[in-house]
Each structure stands twice: as structure tokens, then as C-alpha cells.
From TrEMBL:
Keywords tagged on the record: Membrane, Transmembrane, Transmembrane helix
Organism, as annotated: Streptomyces apricus
Pfam families given in the database record: PI-PLC_X (PF26146)
Protein's recorded name: Uncharacterized protein
GO terms for MF: phosphoric diester hydrolase activity
Matches recorded under InterPro entries: PI-PLC_domain, PLC-like_Pdiesterase_TIM-brl
Keyword Lipid biosynthesis belongs to the record: no
Source species, domain of life: Bacteria
Membrane-spanning segments: 274-293, 305-327, 357-382, 394-417
GO biological process: lipid metabolic process
Amino acid sequence: MVVPTRIRVLRRVAWICAVLCVAVVALTATARSTVLNAGFHRAVLDDEHAYDRLYNQVLVDPEIRPVTRDLLGRLPVPEAVLTSNLKTVLPPETLRTLTDQQLGHVVDYLRADTDRLRLSVDLRPVIANVGGLSRTYFGDLVSSLQEQREPDFAAFRTDLKDAVGEVAAGRPPEGLPALALTKAQAATATDVLLRAVPEDARAALRPEVAVALENGDVATALAAVAPAAVSERTRDAATRLRTVADGGTWNVAADLELDELSRVRAATGLALDVVEPLAAVLGTAALAVLWFTGPGARTRRLRHLGWALGAGGLCAALAALALLLAVGTRPVDAPAGWPRSAARLLDDLQATAADRFLTAALTAALVPLAAGALLVGLAWTAERREAPGPAWRTGLGPAAGAVVLALAGAALVPVAFAGDGARRCMGSPHLCDRRYDEVAQLTSHNAMSTTADRFIGPLQDPLITDQLDSGVRGLQLDTYRWERPEELTGRLDESDFPPELRRQIAAAVGRINPPRPGRWLCHSVCRAGAVELVPELRQIGQWLRAHPDDVVTLILQDGISAEDTEGAFRAAGLEDLLFTPDEDPDRPWPTLGEMIDSGRRLVVFAEQADGPAPWYRNFYAYGMETPFAFRTPAELSCAPHRGGTDGQLFLLNHFITADGGSRLDAGVINTRQAVLDRVHACERSRGRPVTFVAVDYVTVGDAKAAVDRLNAERG
């Protein structure tokens, strides 16, 4: 049978059209699911640990110091801790949220889902963090002070004035004056200190400063006035940020050259809105033409369809490879002024994105290629069968199925590579499958005793929620009811306060912190500092609800009854967050992912109580610990203490209690290497991984980096 010329031409045109359309569908679907999908870019950032590298590599790069100096040059903190300040002002979770928002805006613009590119960064959380910066870091300023005896009150007063001037300038004083003062001299010295703070803050600070100076405790007096003394510089820094942000929101788009992005948008909009659907329709029509105008033998028609689909898939793969060869795996060069660490991060992100794009494109191309090979194989098999069944004589079923499979698969398979960023648990995608007892957690010892809440003899600097923002996931808290005056002496004798501080607190009875009813978080003695239990629990709950991928553990030194504790958690509205441990302490713990999926992400232990609420269990039924009464770093040991030696949970008490907390010693033992060395030693001794690394002054040193390293090692 002679085939008319026009039919032959039509078949050739249909074959070429089918090949091109299949390739276009595969490529546009790949682009839609990768470079034009915000989840793809989030996944690339997670693959390269971009946020960790930003803080641990880029911001500590000496080449970036001029930038950080200009950014934070007016903040009341030493330049030596600028990188830590950046992490405080802009926490990793805040940075991730801001980045995710901008990725969504850019992708929506490129996909033509929005007419204008709106890149606006809400800097209000950053500005709010600046306000707390001086409180958080003042402790570091006084950590290296040395006592210096002065012969007379005049010299003492002069040196005191110099010391507060240094603090107000954001520098640690070289030394603190020390002199036994009469009541009149203490009052005069109080006036000297209070001149450094705004007038409206003096009345509230006067009692605390006067009591401290009467007892010769210059450090506490200086600590009380420092946040107010540096507040003017803090306000200046916040004002600079507000100026940049135009009142709180920074319009990033106004500072960018968007002409190139507009041209890309025009091309992508045309490809997604016109080319892709048109290719799908024309491709289907071309394949139908091939079938109905093909040779009489249906097996030959199957072969023609198969070759068209296979050729389309091959063209898509070759086009993707050609695109990468033309553009390269690193199409954007870092600006000349960027530090090398930032340039390396940019290069690695581009290379990872290119790899993921190529994998998605080749997989999408493989679908029509496989469908075509299937049709060709079916035709070959049918031709060799002596008695083909009805399906082979008809051929329409396999042909239609293969066409649908090829086109739908080429369009849908790349979706698997879009990603939404790796799922994260406790800040890491690698911890979701790890059991609760296998994860190392930075723990704040006496977390409520902070300089921010003006505790006497504080053991932490930031507020509890700020500690959580900095990476703390375990909180050791002490619950109390306010002591009556007749109970004060006994409480003080049992506390870990040094003798000077005990005298200071005793002298303060009736003058500051009068007795108050209710349930409180205190450190040994509520007159030395207290915050209400229920409001603090409520803030912890609010933090957890704002961070749905985190698990937080509370270990309570319970000075109130279990019933009172249960009532406090109920009043704080935390019942839906509370996790109930298995009654059998030897049963395996769930994974972090399972706890997060259940919504039960707040674990609460007591040092003494055990129930009656099922979620309120005694810690030492489930865990063990090291001793905690170490007077020097050299005394730190892994000896057994409460809980024996076979608990699944392991609390490492990693702090010094030489007559109270020691900030200077914290600077020694909170270093990354010191924490790692002790954890490794204790894990070898006990044969169990450390769960909670409890430290004083969590913002001193780098215990968080050590905990991150531990979790990476266990992976």
C-alpha cells in the first residue's frame, strides 16, 4: 500500500513535534519543581548546613570583621564578642524564618504569581533583641575583674567612678575598688554609681546598690547599674537599625538591581503559563496522529510511539546537560569584597543546587525514555508471538497507557525533588530519628537566676526564653514558696551563697523583696531574687508553640508540693504539651520526631516528687548524674551520684559552686573543647551517652558548639 506524501510529511512533523513536546514537558516540570520552588532552595540550604556555616565559619572569618564592626560598632559590648552578639541579636531560627519568607517572595515573583517583588524584612525582633544585649553580655565584661585595695574613701570613690565609666563605654574595668564602707560612705558611693544611669531609673536601683555597697560587694552594685548605664548606647544602636528599616521593616527590593530578575520572570512566566500547557496538548495530539496515521500493523505503531517517547526523554536529558555545561555549576561569582568563607558557602550552595537540578531533570527524562523502551519492547515481543492475544491485535491500550505514563510522569516525577527543606528536630534534620535519650541537650543550671531578672548572685545572664533562643533545651529550675523572716537564717545556712552574700541578703530583709504569697522560682532564697512560676511557665509554653520542632525538658528542684506543681502547669495552659514518660524506666524512649508529631514536647522531671500526675516523674528513676559540688575545675569528675549508674538519661553537672557560681571558672570549663573532653571521659566511664550538659552562664564560652558536635558525632 502506497502512503500518500502528505501523510508521510504529517507523520514526520508529528514525530518531531512529539519528541520536542515530551522534552519541553520534562524540562519545564523540572524547572517548576526545582529552581522555581521555594522548598527546593530550602533543601539546598539544609544540605549544605548553610545556617550553621554562616555562624560557625562566615561570621568568625577575620575578613568579615570590618562589616561586623560597622554593624555593631555602637553597641555596648567589646568587639571580641561581636560574633556571639550577632547570634544573640539575630538568632538562627529568626534568620531561617526571614530567609524562608524571602525565598517565597522571590519564587512567587518568578512564577508570575505576584506582579511585584516585595522583599521586606521585619527587623522588629532584631531591634527587640538589641534591647536585651547589654544585660546578656554585661556578665562577660566583669568576668575578668581583679580586686584592688584602696587606702582611703576618696580614692575608692574616684576608682568607682572610673569603673562605671568604663562599663558605660562598653569596656571591662581593669579592676574593682574594694573598701569596708560606713553607712554614710556607702550612701555617697551609691550616689556616685547612680549618676551614671538615667534619672528615672535611680529610685528603683538605689536599695539594691546601697545594700551591696554596705556589704562591700562592688561587683553586684556595678552589675545592678550596668544595664541602665549602657542603655543610651543600646538605644542609639536600635535607632540606627530603625533608620535602616524605615521604622521596623527593611525594604530589601529597594536596594537591589532587579532588571535581570525581571527578564528572568518574563521568560519563566511564558514557559510555565504558555509553553508547558501548550506542549502537553500538542504532544498528546502529535502522539495521537502517529498512532492513527501509522503503518497498518499495530505493533509497528507501538514501535513508532515508543521511539518518539524515548527520543523526547533523551532530548530532555541532553538539554539539561547542555544547560549545565553552558551555565556551569557556579553561575554566580561572589563579589570581590566577600570573605573567602562566604564565597565558599555560595559556591557550595550553587554546586548542590546544580546537582539536585540535574538529578531531577535526568529522572524526569527517564520516565518517557522508559515508557518508550517499554512500547518498543512490547512491539518486539508481539511480533514474535505466534498467536498474539487481543491486546496485541488492538494495541491501543498499551499505547494509551504508555503515553499517559510518559507525559504525566515527566511532569510529576520532579516534584519528588522539590523538597520543602529537610525536616528539622531540635534544629537539625539528623535528630528526628534519634531517641530522646540519645540526643545531647544544652541545659541551663538554675535557669531562673539571671542578671536580667536582677537576682543577687545570678548564675545566668539572659531571660529563660532568651536562653531557649540561644540553643538551651534543658532548664533546671527551683520552685519555692517565699520564706518567712524566721525561716531566712536556716535557708541561708543551707544555700550555696558565699558568706558575704548571706550577710547581704540578711541585711536586706524588710528593705527589699518583702514576703509575697504564691509559687515562685527562686535560687535557695526568694529574697535574693524571684520570678513567678506560672507566668514563667506560660512564657515557656508560648516559646514552644512558636517553635513546633523543638522538645524542652524541665528538671525541677521541687520546693513546693507535687499538687501545687500540677496546678501551676494547669494554670499556665501547658497540659496539651506535656509528655508522659513510660511507667517502666527501662523501656526505650521515643524518637524526637515521634514526640514532635504527637505534640507532647515538654518533659518535666522532679528531684524529689514522683507523680501523682503521670507526666511528673522523678528524674532519678529514669536518669543518673555526676556530682555537682565542685570548687575548682580540677575537681570535675564522673563519679556516680544520685540515680546510680544505669539510668537511660545522663545529667552531666558541669559547673563550679565555690561559694556560689563562678563566672571566671565558667570561662574555662564552658569552652567547646573542655566540654567535649569531659563528656567523652564520662561517657567512657558510664557506658552511656550524656543527655543533659548542665552549665552556669550559658552565654560564656561555647558549650552550645560542643553539644552540636556531640550530636554530629553520634550520627
